[in-house]
Design brief:
Length: about 130
């Protein structure tokens, strides 16, 4: 399911990129595609003898109990850092750029939109699933 969601978001990113009208959504769909790709790559995850089928279960049953202030986004950043280190800089840039585009400034340059797509492509090169 996660991979299909990733592909759907990536297809949306590819559709929007050439229009140059919705660069904030290019960045957003690139990030959420990356999120689903990396969660698909990391899960199922074995931790302390227990296998967690998907991120939301692991977040609720393990991570949130360790740190009540932890967000799902920051938890995913940590997991990517620990489990897919080579993809980490791309993931972090996509996250930060998306949050800026969505919540601070919806005006995103064509260059930044193209970089988002390129970074999604680079991130995927470090995945095995």
């Amino acid at each position: 399911m996660k991979k299909l969601h990733a592909i759907h978001n990536e297809d949306t990113c590819d559709f929007l990129l050439p229009t140059k009208k919705f660069n904030d959504w290019v960045v957003t769909t690139a990030f959420y595609s990356a999120l689903h790709y990396v969660q698909n790559e990391i899960f199922p995850l074995e931790d302390s003898g227990t296998t967690y089928a998907e991120f939301n279960i692991y977040f609720r049953e393990v991570l949130k109990k360790k740190n009540r202030r932890l967000t799902k986004h920051s938890a995913t950043i940590q997991l990517v850092n620990n489990r897919i280190f080579a993809a980490s800089p791309y993931y972090r840039w996509l996250h930060d750029t998306c949050m800026n585009a969505r919540y601070t400034n919806y005006v995103v340059s064509d260059g930044k939109a193209q970089t988002a797509k390129a970074f999604l492509t680079n991130l995927k090169q470090h995945l095995t699933k």
